Amino acid sequence: MMQNTDRYMIDEMEGYSPNIGRLLSMMEYTRMTTVEAAANLSKEELDYRIDDQGNSIGCLLYHMSCVEEVYQIITFDGRGPNEKEMDRLHLGLTLVKMRINR
Q1: How far apart are CA 22 and CA 12, in angstroms?
Q2: How many CB atoms are located within 10 Å of the residue 64 CB?
Q3: Could you give the CA distance from residue 23 to residue 93 in angstroms, rounded to a whole number?
Q4: Is the pLDDT of residue 101 over 80?
Q5: Are 90 and 81 contacting, i.e. CB atoms less than 8 angstroms apart?
Q6: Which pTM was predicted?
């Protein structure tokens, strides 16, 4: 994890090629700032939508989580998600049914 003094530094990481190290550095920064921004949001704030066409903050965070899980399955297991995994992840990947009716 990035140290607070390094939070804005996108740089190479030891043990990785320069390009992969910079990519990992960017991903760590993005994860850190997203977690910080969402950490203390209330249910009402997570449910907020800017208009009737958009998804809520909570839906978008769930979508990010589902996409990350699919990439992990592809990368670490060397396969696509199976039917059971897709049944569980489908809603977060599509966001269609997650929109809140107001």
Answers
A1: 5
A2: 15
A3: 23
A4: no
A5: no
A6: 0.72
Secondary structure (3-state) at 11: coil
**What are the structure tokens assigned to 92, written together?**
């977060």
Q: Which residue has the tokens 């897709």?
A: 86
Residues in the chain: 102
The runs of H, that is alpha helices, within the chain are 18-38, 43-47, 57-77, 83-94
Q: What gap in Å lies between CA 10 and CA 14, rounded to an integer?
A: 13
Name the token pair of 64: 């990010």
- Which residue from 40, 89, 88 is spatially nearest to 63, judged by alpha carbons? 89
**Residue 14: phi, psi to the nearest 5?**
-60, 135
Span 51-67, pLDDT tens digits: 877 889 999 999 999 99
**Which residue in the block uniquely carries the two structure tokens 């809603």?**
91
